[in-house]
């Protein structure tokens, strides 16, 4: 069994900062890409940022220069530092990890953490 637990969301004023964390636990061989997605009310879930096991990163255009994704492979943890937050960043943020347990790679998701940015 593999579990992702994400945390760190909250209510913040525009221009503020938050740091999200997500830790994978359980029995597995390796974690490949880890990332953060978000879903605003009435909208589809979208990719925010992704980081490979080697540290290569990719960001949605809307967050470039404001958000930073990082990971600690020894702790099986991915972080999302969010600065200069805007009201349009509001949504539920989900971490994702592509994890190899046997032969196959599968997607695993955290339970989601709410981020609300007030204007």
Features:
119 residues; mainly beta; seven-stranded mixed beta sheet; four-stranded antiparallel beta sheet; 11 strands; 0% helix
What is the helix fraction of residues, given as a range? under 10%
Order of helices and strands: EEEEEEEEEEE
Distance between the termini: 41 Å
The oligomeric state of the chains shown is single chain
Separate helix tally = 0
DSSP strand (E) fraction? Answer: over 45%
How many DSSP E strands?
11
Please state the CA-atom Rg, rounded to the nearest Å.
14 Å
Low-confidence stretches: none
Structural class: mainly beta
* Largest β-sheet summary: 7 strands, mixed
Average pLDDT rating = 97
Question: Per the principal axes of the C-alpha atoms, what is the gross shape?
Answer: elongated
What would your notes on this structure say?
The chain is mostly beta strands and 119 residues long. The chain has no helices and eleven strands. It has strands at residues 2-7, 10-13, 18-26, 30-39, 46-51, 57-59, 67-72, 77-82, 91-100, 105-109, 113-118. Strands 2, 4, 5, 6, 9, 10 and 11 form a seven-stranded mixed beta sheet that branches. A hairpin with a 6-residue loop joins strand 4 and strand 5 (46-51).
List the helices and strands and how they pair.
Elements: E1 2-7, E2 10-13, E3 18-26, E4 30-39, E5 46-51, E6 57-59, E7 67-72, E8 77-82, E9 91-100, E10 105-109, E11 113-118
Parallel strand pairs: 2-11
Antiparallel strand pairs: 1-3, 3-8, 4-5, 4-9, 5-6, 7-8, 9-10, 9-11
């Amino acid at each position: 069994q593999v579990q992702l637990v994400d945390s760190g969301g909250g209510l913040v004023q525009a221009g503020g900062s938050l740091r999200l964390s997500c830790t994978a636990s359980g029995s597995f061989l390796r974690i490949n890409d880890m990332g953060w997605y978000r879903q605003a009310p009435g909208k589809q879930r979208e990719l925010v940022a992704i980081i490979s096991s080697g540290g290569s990163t990719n960001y949605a255009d809307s967050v470039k220069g404001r958000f930073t994704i990082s990971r600690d492979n020894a702790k099986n943890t991915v972080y999302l530092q969010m600065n200069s937050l805007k009201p349009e960043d509001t949504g539920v943020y989900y971490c994702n990890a592509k994890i190899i347990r046997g032969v196959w790679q599968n997607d695993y998701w955290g339970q989601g953490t709410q981020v609300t940015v007030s204007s």
